[in-house]
């Protein structure tokens, strides 16, 4: 069967390479996001991105999304009735490609009137660094897919967000009763221990994904802000 890969866009404007590709196999087409030459995500196996959105519950409300990716987490939140999405993305070019509509899902998210996409570092925002113009909390939920997880970091600056101090800082940006959901490339015992020490009702959901002959268990962690001060 004929296979062809086309690069839709590529940039290293933010100090690292990011590329959007479309792979054709016969009559089917798959969009892929590549970061620093390594596969990040594609449009065919999106169950973990959707699980991240589902972790915020059936009525999402006003949500902060850290990491645009290919837009599948944001799209699911919109489809389940989110009233407003604030999306913070580290890659300026990826935001431009979304507004240009280079993939159907990115176009749908960027054109939704409930969505604001901002260029910035969500880890810095949540950990108390200068705010991003036009972005205001608190939020009803926060979902983060900004790195591979606490044990597989691509950007070392994100390490602070996976510490107990970083998690508590992020919870401080939620309304009482709000949820924080974090995507990870795999389960992390140390991270799970830290989360349950903060919230005994924290959850860990594993999502099995098959890629070729490999099975990967992605993880989605959810932590709650108490309804009232303890």
Any descriptors?
230 residues; globular; 11 strands; 7 helices; alpha/beta; single chain; 4-stranded antiparallel β-sheet; 7-stranded mixed β-sheet
What is the topology?
Elements: E1 3-11, E2 18-25, E3 28-35, E4 38-42, H1 47-54, E5 62-66, H2 72-79, E6 84-89, H3 92-100, H4 104-111, E7 115-119, H5 122-126, E8 139-144, H6 164-171, E9 174-184, H7 189-198, E10 203-211, E11 214-224
Parallel strand pairs: 5-6, 5-8, 6-7, 8-9
Antiparallel strand pairs: 1-2, 2-3, 3-4, 9-11, 10-11
Q: Explain this structure to me?
A:
By secondary structure, the protein is of the alpha/beta class. The chain is 24% helix and 36% strand. The strands form 2 sheets. It has a 7-stranded mixed sheet, with helices on both faces. Strands 1-2-3-4 form a 4-stranded antiparallel sheet. The longest helix is centred in the last third of the chain and has 10 residues, at 189-198. The N and C termini lie far apart (61 Å). The model has no long low-confidence stretch (mean pLDDT 92).
Summarize the structure.
With 230 residues, the chain is of the alpha/beta class. It contains seven helices and eleven strands.
Overall mean pLDDT: 92
Low-confidence segments, given as residue ranges, are none
**End-to-end gap:** 61 Å
The count of DSSP E runs of length 2 or more, i.e. the number of strands, is 11
Q: Tell me about the largest β-sheet.
A: 7 strands, mixed
Order of helical and strand elements: EEEEHEHEHHEHEHEHEE
